Amino acid sequence: MRLIAKTIMTVCVLCSLIGCRQKGIEREYSLVQVDSVTFRYSSSIGEGVLRLVAVTDSTNRIEHVKGDSVVDTWKLDYPVYRFTCGDMTGDSIPEVLVGTIKTTRYRPEKDKRLFIFHLYKGRFIRPLWLGSRVGCPLIDFKVETDSMPNLVHTWERKDNGDTIEVLYQLKGFGLKYMASPPALPRREGAGRLKTK
Fold it and tell me: If exposure means fewest CB atoms within 10 Å of the residue's CB, which of 2, 94, 99, 167 is most exposed?
């Protein structure tokens, strides 16, 4: 009986350390957008800030700040039109979503791309997905926070010029098509991100 009790206690401790989900128990997590390029979070890895800093018109830097210190940065050598955050993996740790304008190895034309970064070991900014394209050329995107994990809501341009909307979930390596939501008006302010 003592062995069973010790085993249960060990499993509970391990689950709390690695983040196992128990029915009815939610991990504390909050993500607040401070302005168009700054997000403040509180999660299992502590509190911090994720922000985009414009270096030049075509060079930006993602910064992860804890307390008064910048603990990591990731340089982006291309223009950014959208910067946002969300819990794309469902682990109560925010991911960074960046809309860039660039060419890729397989798509030589400059176009809008979607990059997703995560906080490796809760500290280091590392690429999770560097998408060259979603289903159709990307117009814009936003994070849908109604579900956990969060979903990516995109506006895409079909070959005939029509705009379609698609919901994706981050799965494995890349985005998995979830649904085409009902017709919604195009998001206000979609377009080039203005940074200071």
Answer: 2
Quick check: 150 and 87 in contact, CB under 8 A? yes
The one-letter code for the residue type at 26 is E
The one-letter amino acid code at 70 reads V
Q: In the numeric block, which tokens belong to residue 128?
A: 């999770």
Start-to-end CA span in the chain (Å): 64
pLDDT tens digits along 46-85: 999 999 999 999 999 999 999 999 999 999 999 999 999 9
CA dihedral 69, 128, 137, 153 (to 10 degrees): -80
Taking 60 as the threshold, does the pLDDT of residue 86 lie above it? Answer: yes
Length of the chain as a residue count: 196
